[in-house]
Amino acid sequence: MDVLFALLAGVLTAAGVYLLLRRSLVRMLFGVILLSNAVNLVLFAAGRTTRAAPPIIPEGLSAPAGAVANPLPQALILTAIVIGFGLVAFAFVLLYRTYATFGTVDADDLAREPERGEKGDGG
Amino acid sequence: MSAAVLLILPIIVPAVTGMLTLLARSFPSAQRVLSLLGTTALFATGGLLLVQVQAGGIQATQMGDWPAPFGITLVADYLSAGLVAVTGFVAAAVAVYALRGIDAEREKFGFHTLFHLLLMGINGAFLTGDLFNMYVWFEVLLIASFVLLVLGNGREQLDGAVKYVGINLVASVSFLAAIGLVYGMTGTLNLADLAGSMQNVRQSGMEATVAMLFLIGFGIKAGLFPLYFWLPASYHTPPAPIAAVFAGLLTKVGIYSLLRVFTLLFPEPTGYTQTVLLVVAGATMLLGAFGALVQRNVLRLLAFLVISAMGYVAMGLGFFTTLGLAGAVFYIFQDIPVKTSLFLMGGLMERETGTNQLGDMGGIYTHRPLLAAAFIVPAFSLAGFPPFPGFWGKLTLVQAGLAAEQWTLVAVALIAGALTLLIVGQVWARAFWRPARNDGLVSNMSAGTRTILQGPVVGLALVLLAVGLYAQPLFDLAQTAAVHLTDTGPYVQAVLGR
After folding, report:
1. A60-81: buried (b, 16+ CB within 10 Å) or exposed (e) per residue?
2. Which residues of B touch A73 (CB under 8 A)?
3. ipTM metric
4. Residue B318: inside a domain
């Protein structure tokens, strides 16, 4: 199971980095999404993928009766997913505004943009 | 006040202020007063916390009474408490500047609220004793900074924000991956607990890998070579108060986390970690200065100098000696007000002369002597000129370098220092000393506005001058902080009680 997770995280990371290196900012953002999901898988695998009882303490006891699954990675991933969702949502709105303003989301075209702007201000 | 309350207040105060300013969003003048009161209260709590730490040693408290290492711990050692106090101080200065330095449009869209949420995130990152919680505070301050950066929707701002947002998302991913690996190998996320549990990581041979992931995550935020290109591309776009908080505090959060994590988790790094840190530090100092040398836009020039300064701090860490850390900590303490003051100054220079191009400026010394005097202190402190505080920081760092026999790096630090002196000298000669282009300055500020805008800049300069002339108390604080960073026993004791 761990090998599967490792392979999947590896593939996601590779695809994410490839997309990050593209000129299109939309692809770059997709790359970030893939990367953050790869990391979520790493967090999940870090908590060990075992088959065990849910971590619920029975009534009347102060500790679980037998071996239980580790609940912490799920809590971490949930937090990371929520945060990641918020950031990516913001980033998409930002990209939309950029497209509306500059008419392009190509990193190279955007890089030329400020020079044009400065010349325009001077003239 | 009990220590537990004092530890949580630097997070609660800006949170409450942020909410109140949101409630008062239809009343800009009320917002400004609230913002001023909030930052003053923040400065007061930061100061009290520092006094408490100096009197009673490292303070720690467990959130919700979950015992460490299971719950979230807040810890204030000398470094954290000092940083929280300095943060409160510069926040108050920026809040005064923002009384007149921010336009009505940005106020309407929540400048004050975002400013305080940013402060909350910064203080949270400084005070937390938990690795994952640190990640969460990073995201809190990031999202606030994202919105602050694009507030106003200018073309340049959007362009800068795209780069800033993109690279910071990657930094968060790298940081989170490092957290996952550390947790998988140690089973804990509490920093003090991790300090004693890293042998698994060391034995696994993954120490250098994990250290590099942390270095990438924090290095991007701190603006270290070769991860700094987003910084000069974005810091010159927002208005002065926002740029000043960014330059003063955000990179410091990155470098603070680097100090915290490396001293606790990798006190004796194996493999290439130390070499990488030292090379990165040298390149950051030098390339930051080179970048500033060719800039004609004053705000971009200042942004490159932010980068260069981070190299000095990384160098202090890279030596892994108490003296090096003392120099690094002292340098951070004085660099926060220096950078805040310089970016506020940059905004004023632009307003007074009507341009941000160094070649078109002039006459500030003749027409605004007070402003010119206030520029000298932070600028020449940055260049490491005695008797300003930057000199003492650089002196300690160079001494630490000589003691560690890192001759090349000492030479690089001195060259970068000389270049910085040349750069600020140029700014002085062109913008201040040279006569104005058209007999006078273009600004039409009222006298009251000018007093309010110049007030914080002059105040910061006076404090910096006092610190430079009487550096002993701050140096003692940095020294104690460094001792606790090297010998982590008291920190672990305060958190875990053993």
Report:
1. eeeeeeeeebeebbeebbebbe
2. 183
3. 0.89
4. yes
